[in-house]
Amino acid sequence: MQQTFASIAITALPAFSDNYLWLIHTGKHALIVDPGDATVVEHALQTGGYQLEGILLTHHHADHVGGALALQQHWQCPVYAPDNNHPSYNAVKAIRVKEGDCIEFASFPELSCQVMALPGHTLDHIAYYINQQHLFSGDVLFGGGCGRLFEGSPAQMYASLQQIAALPAETLIYPAHEYTAHNLAFAMTVEPENTTLQQRAQNTALLRKNQQPTLPTILSLELATNPFLRCDSLSKHAEFQHWPAVDIFTELRARRNDF
Fold it and tell me: pTM of the entire structure?
């Protein structure tokens, strides 16, 4: 699936069982976010006639970085990665980036790429916020859900999600996995009376029945239906009345782990 905006197009490349590798392109130039599978990316580049100008890594898990070295060796392009010393980043001689950095590409003069530090899923997790409109959130925020806590604390993940929640409501979000249907099934156990959530679950079921992606999503929809972004609102519900929002988040993440 491809979406075209004023200056760039963004294409979802399915990989593995449920990953999306996001191809950002304009003219014959392209960037790839989290290329877990080099073969999938190479096929898309060849089909579109694109030149790969850069690789953006959100974190070090294999399904996000597994194809980066082969792509870099083929295309001799820079790799951008979180600012730590993980072996996955050393292998590709990555350029390390951190919160507040802005990445520019000569072949994409119309593209502004801001780095956000979003620890929780991993301690080094970052996201790429492009043209103040497109957020490539890796495994932090999913459609209707959020990532597991492999390294960070609930407080860290909650703070990261609050950073995303503070972005403009029209921000488009590009998670790395197709988890939306299962996440919404869990969300329905938390807020069964949420009519917007009910409608979203129906729309999602139809998309998946037709083998269509549910992503990208839009922040306004996540704020209305994603329980991990609704902890303040949930504190008004009888079950969680007067709980601190971070405690509600911690409880919901524990429940989702077993769902």
Answer: 0.96
